[in-house]
Amino acid sequence: MQRQDLPAVLQIAAEVHPDYPEGEAVFAERLALFAGGCLCLATRGGVLAGYVLSHPWHADAPPALDTLLQRLPAPAPAYYLHDLALRPLARGLGAAARVMPLLAAQAEAAGCREMALVAVNGSAGFWARQGFDVRDVPALKAKLASYDTQARFMVRRL
What we know:
- By secondary structure, the protein is an alpha+beta fold.
- The protein has 5 helices and 6 strands; from the N terminus they run H-H-E-E-E-H-E-H-E-H-E.
- Strands 1-2-3-4-6-5 form a 6-stranded mixed sheet, sandwiched between helices.
- A hairpin with a 5-residue loop joins strand 1 (38-42) and strand 2 (48-57).
């Protein structure tokens, strides 16, 4: 992902996650803090069809929606998958599953012991197939409720 991709990334976010709006500053900050974890999927014609935002982070403490991080922790025990969004034309092609080894390698290179995410929109089954398990963290109950009733905090050991 490059800075010039942000307008298209924001459009994808609005299309794929209309119930979870985040400002451009969030996307720009993630890109500035950890560019290696910000990836785009382009079609053969160069049209962006999806993106990933990810970065090292604290264990059992996903950032709230639409929140700036200021800086990344060092060391960071977890690698947080902030968002993976695919337009309909990119779904069912295996793109999400193919990016997982790359993200896991980045997480290990950053010294993280696990990957973490908040599964929304009933996506926990997909993430379970990627090796993630639901982790019950009572302190996250209110934060998860701010997403939707099906939101689950999930973790994959590395």
